[in-house]
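Below is a filled-in request sheet from our internal design queue. Each sheet records the structural input a requester submitted and the sequence that came back. We keep these sheets so that new team members can see what a complete request looks like end to end.

REQUESTER: design group, bay 2
PRIORITY: normal
MODE: inverse folding
CHAIN LENGTH: 238
BACKBONE (tokenized):
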């Protein structure tokens, strides 16, 4: 990785602002490979240099990848004047500049949300060209039938929107898993509405090959594993 100024490294990791770093350097609190850093413009490769603050080694991460179980009632946005957002649910030490939710879930939808500052990965995951599959669990107010499954399979149309073939697996009278490889606005709700069904509860449970961690209760989150960072782009429609 390119060498970067120490103040930039620490601010990128949300450890200290540039002016705080200056004061910490003056106080001799920052070391790089065991040597006390003297100036804020000293440059290091953050991936190969052992940087410590008050004797504590920092764990440099170029990007953050957070899996959240989004609760209902929270916006999938970075900030909002009135409503709570998924970013607001993160603790300060994870609230890095540039973090954003990759993709949208409606305010009342729960489930798997990726929050990252890696624009390239988010773009690959969301790009309509890549057709990454997303799996949802839906409860409706209508008894679902094989006709509905067939309609989803043939590609639902509403207004002038044409959806690709979607897989619906009925698991109870009024609930089903639905897998889509697109991300049109309110897509699942609109697909069901075209069959005369209202969606009463909706939860995203998988993106690509990454399933929502069952240990995460609504509002909880954890970082993705290395494996999950690649698996989130797998399972695509050709
Ligand atoms: N489809 C919807 O209708 N809502 C969501 O939140 C996600 C997919």
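RETURNED SEQUENCE:
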């Amino acid at each position: 990785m390119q060498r970067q100024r120490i103040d930039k490294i620490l601010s990128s990791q949300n450890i200290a602002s540039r002016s705080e770093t200056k004061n910490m350097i003056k106080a001799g609190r920052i070391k790089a490979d065991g040597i006390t850093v003297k100036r804020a413009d000293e440059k290091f490769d953050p991936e190969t240099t052992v940087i410590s603050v008050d004797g504590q080694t920092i764990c440099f991460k170029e990007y953050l990848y957070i899996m959240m179980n989004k609760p209902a009632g929270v916006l999938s946005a970075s900030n909002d004047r009135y409503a709570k957002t998924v970013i607001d649910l993160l603790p300060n030490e994870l609230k890095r500049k540039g973090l954003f939710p990759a993709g949208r879930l409606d305010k009342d939808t729960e489930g798997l949300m990726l929050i990252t500052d890696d624009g390239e990965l988010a773009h690959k995951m969301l790009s309509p060209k890549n057709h990454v599959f997303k799996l949802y669990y839906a409860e409706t107010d209508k008894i679902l039938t094989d006709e509905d499954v067939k309609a989803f399979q043939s590609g639902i149309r509403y207004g002038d929107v044409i959806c690709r073939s979607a897989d619906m697996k009925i698991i109870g009278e009024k609930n089903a898993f639905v897998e889509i490889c697109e991300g049109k606005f309110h897509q699942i709700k609109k697909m069901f509405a075209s069959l005369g069904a209202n969606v009463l509860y909706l939860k995203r449970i998988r993106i690509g090959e990454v399933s929502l961690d069952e240990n995460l209760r609504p509002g909880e989150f954890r970082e993705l594993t290395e494996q999950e960072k690649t698996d989130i782009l797998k399972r695509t429609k050709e």
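SHEET NOTES:
- Residues 18-26 form the longest helix (9 residues).
- The chain has two domains: 4-57, 65-231.
FILED BY: M.R.
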